[in-house]
Amino acid sequence: xxxxxxxxxxxxxxxxxxxxxxxxxxxxxxxxxxxxxxxxxxxxxxxxxxxxxxxxxxxxxxxxxxxxxxxxxxxxxxxxxxxxxxxxxxxxxxxxxxxxxxxxxxxxxxxxxxxxxxxxxxxxxxxxxxxx
Length: 132
Ligand SMILES: C[S@@+](CC[C@H](N)C(=O)[O-])C[C@H]1O[C@@H](n2cnc3c(N)ncnc32)[C@H](O)[C@@H]1O
Prior knowledge:
By secondary structure, the chain is an alpha/beta fold. The chain has helices spanning about 35-50, 65-70, 85-95, and strands at about 55-60, 80-85, 100-105, 125. The chain has one domain (about 35-125): Vaccinia Virus protein VP39 (Rossmann fold, 3-Layer(aba) Sandwich).
């Protein structure tokens, strides 16, 4: 007997999974939510391991409320945050308008067509949403 069950989707529907992002994929609430416990743990790590990141390039995948950039960008050579969320980008620009070494890129991490928007190599990559 054949089953009608579908295989699980490769990408969760709430993570910008479609390669061609629709408007509903570009709004998240993370710009106004508290920093996640996972990212707070990353903050703790960075504070305790200064040599790992000071004056280096850091890529932040899914930058959320911009608190990582606000807290650490001044000590980095360059901060590059990526997100699919337009409100997050607005918040980033309002909070880090004067930080010449902090940049944001609208980029779906699942879409290889967008990868050329990221230039160069990174010393540190932070992504607290590995399940997605
Ligand atoms: C769970 S939130 C975590 C936010 C922040 N990193 C933290 O830990 O507080 C997930 C973040 O990833 C972003 N995001 C979700 N799907 C994405 C995708 N496909 N490509 C890039 N960013 C994505 C969201 O907009 C949000 O900034």
